[in-house]
Amino acid sequence: MSIAAVEAMRWRARERRRERIFQIVAATLVLFALTMLSVLLLKILLDGYARLGVSFLTEYASRRPEQAGIKAALVGSFYLMLLTAAFAVPIGVGAAIYLEEFARKSRWTRLIEINITNLAGVPSVIYGLLGLQVFVRTLAMERSLLAGACTMALLALPVIITAAREGLRSVPQSLREGSLALGATRWQTVRYAVLPVAMPTVLTGVILSLSRVVGETAPLLVVGAFAYIAALPNSLFAPFTVLPVQIYDWISRPQPGFHQNAAAGIIVLLALLLSMNAVAIYMRHRLSTRLL
Hints:
The chain has 292 residues and is mostly helical. It is 77% helix and 0% strand.
């Protein structure tokens, strides 16, 4: 056996050892992260399980931890999510359609695309400060449900636009050309040929962005979500609270009973987020199956 062949065998053996070491280190890190997450979830379940019940979901916040509930926060989160979707989804999907299907490629459109990508990574508290200045003070919406929804719509827009654009890009160009060849207009092609094919990705992006909205705390604290609300919002300009803000208020108090309430609220919030993600997966699979 030649010297070159021996060196090649030694090099391959070293590479296999390095690859094996890397696999072991990566598996160890993943196992450590999963273990910490499991311990955290188990502690939350043990602390909050006793407080879960109908009364916890149907009672308002109270100074007494055994009588406190999340009714106002749960309903406020639902209203906030609906209003955010009403503002963000049409604008986000419309912007994605325009950028992908109608806008000419220029420096201006490239600048817009870069800014949209960068906005997706901006800390959420910055959106809260922007909403405080623009919606609460300049537009005089005060610390209302409408101001919170507009702020969270700004937070969700970059994610929705990016997901919708990815969905539109995944549609084969031949589908557009075939529709145009049959006499359809540009808008008819987008409306009846392109958008239905891209809809699974678009809906997934929408639901995931709304999941982020439901779990955000910092921008809503800046905009003015209240920790204690004794009534449900009855208008767009009514004060509001949401689950993350209520959990934050409870966890900041020294009484152990409020810590149990916070753990129970976290369980409800996790159940809500997991349900929304499950809906996104189901809708994506169902729409993809219909298209096949």
